[in-house]
Amino acid sequence: MKEVAEFYREQDGVIDVHYIKRTHRQKDFHAVKEGELPVRLARNTGKVTYVLYWVLEHEEAHARVSRLGIEKFYKRWNRCLITMPKIILGETVV
What sign results for the dihedral spanned by CA atoms 37, 86, 1, 48? Predict the structure, then answer.
């Protein structure tokens, strides 16, 4: 993921890139309301959840850089992905 993030950072139109590895979960909504600490994921289930957080200059950068990433890294991703990744696109609201 470090190599992929570095590749994306080098592309025109990419402002910032973060890959986030899921390490915790909330116990439940009541725990959140009470300000309890999240629960660390301790059990190794053989799968890891990563989230790609990009800041891009415009939509065209997303289309171009996504394509470049697929062309360069698809074979490696395909070996470790169980399902199609979720992609959420949006814009800054604050």
Answer: positive
